[in-house]
Design brief:
7 helices, binds adenine, alpha/beta, single chain
Length: 247
Amino acid sequence: MMKTGLIGAMREEILLLKKDIQQLKTDKFGSREFYSGTLNGQELVMALSGWGKVAAASTATTLINHYQVDQLVFIGLAGSVQPQLNIGDIVVGNQLIQHDVDLTRLEGFPKVESPFWKTFEFNVFPDSGAKALSAVDNFVLNLKNGQYPAINASYSPTVHVGAIGTGDQFIASKEGKVRINERFPQILCTEMEGAAIAQVSADYQLPCTVIRIISDHADEEAHDSFSKFLFEDISQISVEIIKLLLS
Ligand code: ADE
């Protein structure tokens, strides 16, 4: 049976799911609690990473080495860096890119090479991408059919599949967005953990899924828009998507 490691950066993004975990057991490693048990009959271990790539990588590594999870799943909010993405839209990652890694100054020095990973762009296994997309499509369908009374009735997201950018920065300016667009025109939205989890997954050759809900446009209004989405909307949305993903 497949065991899933589920990570979210903030309480609001995943912790509501805890009440649905059966045979719940809590362990602590370092500063983090790990909640394990079953959801829809499938084995699940859930943990809060906190913000950023180091926090995400540390959490992912514990899930793999201590719990032997077979796949990693991350769900949470992101800022859109493309005009066609609206607040509330859902992005299923098919590629995770560490947009803040810049080694261009080392180009042309072919003998200077990092072991393990020479690239900071990670592709999602097609099978994981397809499963995530189908869970998100089902979520949108159920939403249209009025199956989620706890979610605002006017919520009607568009689903996008594409590249997600990760960096240790909350992007909240036109310049910040332009910097990402210029180097990586394929990136749809930006966040702070996904590509770190993708790198750890790649190290262990495990599948990884990243699903992001757009909370802001990564511009000067990003902070207010992000806070509003975090406290009003995200909890129910992410819980329902994860339940469908693990069914
Ligand atoms: N998560 C949600 N919005 C974000 C933004 N604008 N930048 C980085 N991470 C985010």
